């Protein structure tokens, strides 16, 4: 598809990796961005680019609104939509072992599909163009995402309650071949659910495939305490010593870190993926975001799953990431809106190995969203980046494009599924699991 | 206007003040609710109510979506829209004295109007049907709100930098007579901006008019410390001893309370109005919500002004009020979604003296909203109240009605102003204040 967006404000990154807002147009050619720049006669742009004049399938008047990179949700369990508002107001361990795991046991490769479509629909409404997922049945989620046209990076969630290194390897090979939209990294659920022999096998796989490794890391105080009791080391130090991070990676949550943990993340340039809403709601704590930033450790932002959050909304997470850092440090100057927006877009893309989706620029994949600035919460336009982070809402998302295709526009989905059917199925599935 | 909503889920309160969701219809007659109950033939309902068959101006098929009371924003400075994203990332005192006050000095009774309309528009998009406002020029805001059809309760924000008890009295009389939609209570900005003689005059006025008293109370640690240094008492104890609360009232923020403060609020049944987003963003702290609830102290929820928050979004505040209580107490069971929703609706109405707007029931004012449940973030419908509090979004607000009039529907406003004009004016005004 050739699509021309004109009359737009466009959020770009300059050479210092700082956000700039330019006025002009953006051309999409197939799955990629062909041009981002000032408005000129299309013929002039074509001459510059040595390009034949495209035949536009659509020319979209952006009406002075904002085009920006889609949000990258750097930690999620998309299929968990079925447990939204099902088991709340419980501490993490109880919530996980008594409520989530028994219901998850009733999932199969068929009933999980509409639950995943439901999550993808929610991402699109919030301008999220990729999720970094720890899923049940990764090949199934890869199929579902590709079918919807959604970009999905996955990581293994294997643990000693289920799965094996052999299955991880099988998934690795399958998912990475499913579609251009899907990829897979080596990983495991968490130290507290995984025995030493399996962790060692995971490290071997990471070496074999030169893969980064991600896991739930230091989400609760108790998790760190128990790991110290078991191994005399924190989860970060243990996994480092097991040789997990030869090819990078990072951790989800990273709430309780000691000096040595920070050092390892800094040295290896691992990504700390913060999930502020989930950490509050499960009463896990507030991550030390300021220190991650000060140490130059890459940070990305995730929603976590809809059972713990309970929504998949990057605007909520951005506000929280910023505001919680301020109150944690009792310092209202702590972490600027620009830094937060970078984490939610470019930072997430880099964590997922999607360097070709990390900004709006010619040659990058066309994963972008249109933000309606003509709404009261985005006015006046004193500072558009601050408006996005501090007062933005998913209500402002007018259009979500992934890989050059418009999947969501003016509250309508183009993903090959009827919303009403998906809602009906999701309700039926959770009801069928009861009793 | 006679409006019939049918095929609805309706959020009501039972005799134990607990939320229930019934299926049926809701009739609006003029500014009030005439009927809430199960669906029957309209003629049957009329016979029961001994009512002539109404001529409907509109019959609205709610399509199984939710009708619920409008949110009550229990603390706001609506006019501050112009400072949204203008002065961020600063601590409260610096933000207030160096950024807000100098710009506020440039406000007048004309340029403040579009700024207030902008705030009212934002309320409507978030399903807020009333604000409890501490404003510049209260009679002007009363006029603007009445013109838009919006319900506005105001409180005096007098302090020793401007205003006098005489002006408070004048405003009290004027605003309470402006419209059925507007009312005014005695109050003052805060102890830290108000000298003793003025506080005493305010207490006298409260007695004269039998008015509740509200003020910013114990928002920061520093505020309490300085009050203790000045008077040897906390702001709560000082104002109690000055006889402020003979007719009730409460405090905005209430972050730093000691045992005696809790005791006073409990004994007097004063409302603690929590403003979680603002308290985070200005790095003020996290209010002790759990204890307020345990002591049986009324709680309501406010957004505070758009310069500190930076949005006027009750969904954001509800999630925060709940999730922050959980992380503050490190207890994921702390405060249920039901309690939070009660604070955001009924609790706010009671704080503002709007007992006739506190729930959906026959005879109450028709201040209500329609929530679109056919959106991914509201599915599956495991628990609608939890979905509202934990995953709801202003995107779900399909319709906002105040006093029987539909002011917002499907993203369109019916308030007598053109959105584009308001945005243009708001941008012009802040630009004109620069330099």
Query: For the report, how would you describe the main beta sheet of chain A?
Result: 9 strands, mixed
Please count the beta strands of chain A (DSSP E, at least 2 residues each): 17
Low-pLDDT sequence parts of chain A: none
The number of helices of chain A is 15
In the CATH hierarchy, the architecture of the largest domain in chain A is: Alpha-Beta Barrel
Tell me the domain tally of chain A: 2
Under CATH, the homologous superfamily of the largest domain in chain A reads: Metal-dependent hydrolases
How confident is the prediction overall: mean pLDDT of chain A?
A: 96
According to CATH, the fold-level topology of the largest domain in chain A is TIM Barrel
CATH class of the largest domain in chain A: Alpha Beta
Structural classification of chain A? alpha/beta
Gross morphology of chain A:
globular
Keywords (chains A, B): Hydrolase
Domain Amidohydrolase-related (chains A, B): 67-407
GO molecular function (chains A, B): hydrolase activity, acting on carbon-nitrogen (but not peptide) bonds
Protein name (chains A, B): Amidohydrolase
């Amino acid at each position: 598809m050739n699509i021309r967006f004109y009359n737009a404000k466009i959020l770009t990154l300059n050479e210092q990796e700082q956000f700039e807002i330019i006025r002009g147009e953006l051309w999409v050619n197939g799955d990629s961005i062909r041009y981002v720049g000032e408005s000129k006669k299309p013929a002039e742009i074509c001459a510059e680019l040595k390009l034949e004049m495209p035949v536009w399938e659509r020319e979209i008047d952006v009406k002075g609104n904002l085009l920006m990179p889609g949000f990258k949700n750097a930690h999620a369990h998309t299929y968990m939509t079925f447990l939204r508002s099902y088991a709340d107001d419980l501490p993490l361990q109880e919530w996980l072992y008594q409520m989530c795991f028994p219901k998850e046991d009733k999932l199969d490769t068929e009933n999980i599909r509409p639950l995943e479509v439901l999550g993808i629909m929610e991402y699109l409404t919030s301008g999220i163009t990729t999720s970094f997922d720890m899923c049940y049945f990764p090949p199934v989620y890869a199929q579902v995402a590709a079918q919807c046209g959604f970009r999905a990076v996955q990581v293994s969630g294997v643990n000693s309650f289920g799965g094996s290194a052999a299955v991880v390897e099988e998934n690795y090979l399958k998912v990475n071949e499913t579609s251009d939209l899907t990829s897979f990294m080596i990983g495991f659920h968490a130290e507290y659910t995984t025995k030493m022999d399996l962790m060692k096998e995971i490290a071997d796989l990471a070496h074999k495939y030169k893969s980064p490794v991600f896991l739930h890391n230091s989400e609760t105080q108790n998790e760190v305490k128990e790991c110290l009791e078991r191994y005399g080391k924190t989860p970060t130090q243990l996994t480092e010593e097991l040789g997990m991070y030869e090819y990078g990676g990072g951790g989800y949550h990273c709430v309780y870190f000691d000096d040595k943990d920070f050092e390892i993340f800094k040295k290896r340039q691992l990504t700390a993926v913060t999930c502020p809403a989930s950490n509050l709601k499960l009463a896990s704590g507030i991550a030390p975001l300021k220190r991650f930033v000060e140490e130059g450790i890459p940070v990305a932002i995730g929603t976590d799953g809809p059972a713990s959050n309970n929504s998949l909304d990057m605007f909520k997470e951005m506000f929280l990431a910023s505001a919680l850092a301020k109150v944690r440090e009792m310092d209202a100057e702590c972490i600027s809106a620009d830094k937060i927006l970078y984490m939610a877009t470019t930072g997430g893309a880099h964590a997922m190995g999607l360097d070709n989706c990390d900004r709006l620029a010619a040659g990058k994949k066309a994963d972008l969203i249109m933000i309606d600035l003509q709404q009261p919460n985005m006015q006046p336009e004193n500072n558009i980046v601050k408006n996005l982070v501090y007062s933005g809402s998913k209500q402002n998302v007018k259009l979500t494009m992934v890989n050059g295709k418009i999947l969501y526009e003016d509250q309508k989905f183009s993903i090959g599924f009827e919303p009403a059917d998906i809602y009906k199925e999701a309700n039926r599935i959770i009801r069928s699991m009861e009793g």
